[in-house]
């Protein structure tokens, strides 16, 4: 199975399904984030599952433990493949989320629970703005260690930290957004890496949004990334 997760960052179901109907569920998973979920509600998860896609529900819960636990339980009951919370919510919140996802599974297929460490749109300067004086790398490792202590399944980090985390917390899956093929703009992302380099650095899953969704031909953009991952040479003249 491919490590790619396509971020369906759209404002309505129609646009999301137009893209999805051009993608192969054997070639990628899909991510429903705050924009699409706010527009469509849980029904969009069912529509994607009917089409054979594993869904990462990216609502990045961050609240008091009971609120996060209830939200996680409800999200897991949708049968999503993966869901996330913010590690900076602390150990009580993370443990409550863990217990809630376990309870929702009821012995059947379990939703993967991952924790966002430091957003890929942040760097040392933006961390300082919110009172964190550590470097991004140290803060990511601190939060990843906390997630491991609370028995989460993985963490969201940039691929730049994947190698360090593979050593520090090898038991955690590494989910990496901020993926940019060489010819693409970084947009609002600060910590970016190209797809093949990210996998080589230790990423288990690559979250890719605009390089696919904003491409003239999204299916071709996806297959170019898959070819790059397979080690095939990428012809720059075929760039989107
Ligand atoms: O949890 C996430 O998915 C996430 C965490 C993070 O640190 N950075 C990050 O970009 N994301 C999400 O990953 C996607 C990246 O989209 P692009 O920048 O368009 O590839 C968006 O849907 C973000 O919400």
How are the secondary structure elements laid out?
Elements (H helix, E strand, L loop, with lengths): L3 E4 L5 H8 L8 E4 L1 H7 L2 H8 L4 E7 L3 H12 L5 E5 L4 H15 L6 E5 L7 H6 L6 H14 L4 E3 L5 H7 L4 E4 L18 H7 L3 E4 L1 H4 L4 H12 L11
Parallel strand pairs: 1-2, 1-8, 2-3, 3-4, 4-5, 5-6, 6-7, 7-8
Helix pairs in contact: 4-5
Bound molecules: orotidine-5'-monophosphate.
Annotation keywords:
single chain; 240 residues; alpha/beta; TIM Barrel; 11 helices; 8 strands; 15% strand; globular; binds orotidine-5'-monophosphate; OMPdecase_AS; decarboxylase; lyase; EC 4.1.1.23
CATH architectural category: Alpha-Beta Barrel
- Give the strand order, joined by hyphens, for the main sheet: 1-2-3-4-5-6-7-8
Radius of gyration: 17 Å
Shape label: globular
The DSSP helix count reads: 11
Question: Please, what is the average pLDDT?
Answer: 94
Distance between the termini: 25 Å
Q: For the record, what is the CATH homologous superfamily label?
A: Aldolase class I
Q: Within the CATH hierarchy, at the fold level, what is the topology?
A: TIM Barrel
Largest sheet: 8 strands, parallel, barrel
- What helical percentage do the residues reach? 40-55%
Ligand catalogue: orotidine-5'-monophosphate
- Classify the beta-strand content into a percent band: 15-25%
SSE pattern, N- to C-terminal: EHEHHEHEHEHHEHEHEHH
Number of domain units: 1
The CATH first-level class comes to Alpha Beta
Q: Please identify the structural class as seen in this structure.
A: alpha/beta
GO biological process, one term: 'de novo' pyrimidine nucleobase biosynthetic process
EC number: 4.1.1.23
Organism: Acidithiobacillus ferrooxidans (Thiobacillus ferrooxidans)
Protein name: Orotidine 5'-phosphate decarboxylase
């Amino acid at each position: 199975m491919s490590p790619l997760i396509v971020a369906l960052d759209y404002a309505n179901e129609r646009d999301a399904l137009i893209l999805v109907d051009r993608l192969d569920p054997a070639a990628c998973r899909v991510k429903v984030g705050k924009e699409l979920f706010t527009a469509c509600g849980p029904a969009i998860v069912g529509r994607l599952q009917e089409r054979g896609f594993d869904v990462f529900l990216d609502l990045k819960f961050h609240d008091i433990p009971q609120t996060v636990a209830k939200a996680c339980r409800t999200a897991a009951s949708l049968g999503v493949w993966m869901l996330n919370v913010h590690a900076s919510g602390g150990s009580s919140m993370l443990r409550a989320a863990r217990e809630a996802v376990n309870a929702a599974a009821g012995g059947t297929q379990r939703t993967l629970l991952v924790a966002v460490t430091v957003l890929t749109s942040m760097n040392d300067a933006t961390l300082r703005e919110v009172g964190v004086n550590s470097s991004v790398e140290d803060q990511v490792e601190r939060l990843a260690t906390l997630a491991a202590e609370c028995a989460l399944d993985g963490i969201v980090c940039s691929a730049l930290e994947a190698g360090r985390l593979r050593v520090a917390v090898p038991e955690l899956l590494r989910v990496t957004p901020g993926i940019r093929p060489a010819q693409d703009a970084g947009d609002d992302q600060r910590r970016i890496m190209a797809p093949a380099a990210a996998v080589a650095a230790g990423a288990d899953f690559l979250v890719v949004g605009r390089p696919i969704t904003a491409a003239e031909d999204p299916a071709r953009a996806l297959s170019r990334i898959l070819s790059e991952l397979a080690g095939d040479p990428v012809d720059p003249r075929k760039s989107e």
